[in-house]
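Retro notes, structure queue

What went well: the backlog is down to a handful. What didn't: a couple of records were mislabeled last round, so from now on we paste the full input next to the output in the thread. Example, using LysR family transcriptional regulator from Rhizobium lusitanum:
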Amino acid sequence: MKFKIRQMEVFRAVMISGSITNAAKMLFVSQPAISRIVAHTESSLGLQLFKRSKGKLIPTPEALRLFEQVEVVYDSASRASQFAENLAGNLNGTIHLSISPCLSRMVIARAVAPFTKRYPDVSVHIHSRMLGELPFDLLSSKSHVAVSVQPLEHANLISETVTTTRMVCALPRGHRLCDGETVKLSDIAAEPMVMHAEKLTFGELVRDAFKAEKLSHKAVSLVHQTDNACSLVNAGVGLAIIDPYSAHWGGYPDVVTRPISRTIPLRPSIVRSNFENLGTETERFIKYVSKMNWESAP
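Corresponding output:
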């Protein structure tokens, strides 16, 4: 067989991810290893699969036609793998769910729990992931579906927004700004702040909001997880701008949230891969997530 399974796997990863670098990340191997396999595949098949232009790989017409056949093989292999897993675990189905940390407690309580009670023979495996990690989980088939605090922009992902909400100000209980119904960004900027790192989505959103109003702010602490921001606010370290779910579901008795006068929108979404044929169990679970109560308070 000239076109071996490993070559198909690498070829598919490059087609889905769009580059050698991203394919290497998906398959957890080095970039040179991916390049060697791609070159060997082209040589053994006698086909040019990619054209190189300004550092980018552009699939040839032959690659696009070959990819259609590889997807057929991959889908069959995925079904066989899932069937074997179900036999080993004596289950009727397994769902791998990747989810933004700030949504996990609420979705577990309002969707996963009632779903597993209704379908006790289906196992839901939950993986908490940062936004930047979700595409790789889906495109590498590590997860069947993701629930993300923001839509994921990717040509090979489908994002379905299930609700629209906004970021809020988290304050220590008793803070003077708790007295108002809303909080102005200018008032927040005058206070010590717990900030998300700017390379994170929340950090970018907050930075852009301050920039739009030409405000500077003082960060007394930088965090990568909203739970850490809530813990610091709970301890009275400063204020934070966070999603509307984390403080309510995280058990922070001394954190109060207030709407911000400037809307910083969030659009929680259900995300799936264009290349994943979802099983009946996953389709049913998606309906539970889309129809659940998305109000922030428990």
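Agreed that this is the format going forward. Reviewer comment attached to the example: The first strand starts at residue 50 and ends at 53.
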